[in-house]
Amino acid sequence: MPTRHPTLLETFSSRAQTATHPLTAYLLRLMDLKASNLCLSADVSTARELLQLADKVGPSIVVLKTHHDVVSGWDFHPHTGTGARLAQLARKHGFLIFEDRKFGDIGHTVQMQYVGGSARIIDWAHIVNVNMVPGKAAVTALAEAEAKWRERYQYEVKTSVTVGTPRSDTFDEQPEESGWWNTDEEGQNREGVGRKGSIVSVTTLTQHYESATSPRFPRDETKGEDCLYAGIDEPPIERGLLILAQMSSAGNFMNREYTQACVEAAREHRRFVMGFVSQESLNSEPDDHFIHMTPGCQLPPEGEEENGTVAGDGLGQRYNTPQKLIGLCGTDIVIVGRGILKAGDPQSEAERYRTTAWKAYLSRVTKNT
Ligand code: 6AU
């Protein structure tokens, strides 16, 4: 049982006022608006299924969790691919995308995995998570990558060609540092973009950044419906990190000391770390306003005792009910995969989970008022 930290007693709308991270504040408002604290773990095997599922279950959830690397047919196109189409569905139904990438390597590598490669995860996933086994540097490195990306994102590259004799002040003597933050979506180096002009004869080709008109992300060029969920604005541009502090699987090695180190890392990066993937609330100091998302959640079949026990999956996964996780352990959002995916009607099963998890939250805060 966690200690009775104030966040356990507060409503999500009230916590939205005090949350340190802008994306956490947004998510808490979304939860209040949709009366949902449900995350769907969309562990399906094709991009087509993923998009159909997101469209169907979108109204019931506040977070859609992906494992992009288990999805066949994932289209990596930055503007029209699977990430961009998910982002469009996220706007339409009002949910955030959480790529369950569990980064777990040295700082330099996790930066490249987050921002670069074919997937360019940071472009379409509002939230990612980190497995902190390599140490706190992984969190620092991801925070740095996000800050650099955000700095760049707020501007669009504009290209202009002028003919004439360039003046000497058109040139910048200091070349920019090279790295993943200087590559565009096609992987081309953008080194120096925004600062230098290069001369071809007397023609000057200039590229510069201009403020983007909308923080919408990724820049949406997909065709079709492009509406924004009513009642709330666009999510903020800031990306968020969840630290994997406790696992649902039997016999995992995340002991108390490890979990405590995760909490300390979160406190050191409050502007980037939204909270934890954990099995209980880890807020303990007055300044802790972290959010907790919890996997290993299933309900007994319909018609059976709602708070009864649920067997594991035979592969190490253990399950608890929303009532136990939200009501007793004090977490905020339940992450449900196969409990919904394997149902005959995933859409109505998602509604059953949404109402049960929301009821558990309401009775927690009501009991405590
Ligand atoms: O509901 P399930 O068992 O079908 O799916 C649970 C989902 C899977 C796991 O990769 C993930 O939650 N997960 C995580 C996460 C989210 O990081 C941590 C953990 O401790 N246990 C767990 O199952 O996609």
TrEMBL record:
Q: Which Gene Ontology cellular component terms are annotated?
A: cytosol
Record CDD domains: OMP_decarboxylase_like
Q: Which UniProt keywords apply?
A: Decarboxylase, Lyase, Pyrimidine biosynthesis
Report the superkingdom from the record.
Answer: Eukaryota
Active site, UniProt feature = 100, 102, 105
EC primary class? lyase
What are the residue boundaries of the Orotidine 5'-phosphate decarboxylase domain, all occurrences included? 37-353
PANTHER family, per the entry: OROTIDINE 5'-PHOSPHATE DECARBOXYLASE
Q: What protein does this entry describe?
A: Orotidine 5'-phosphate decarboxylase
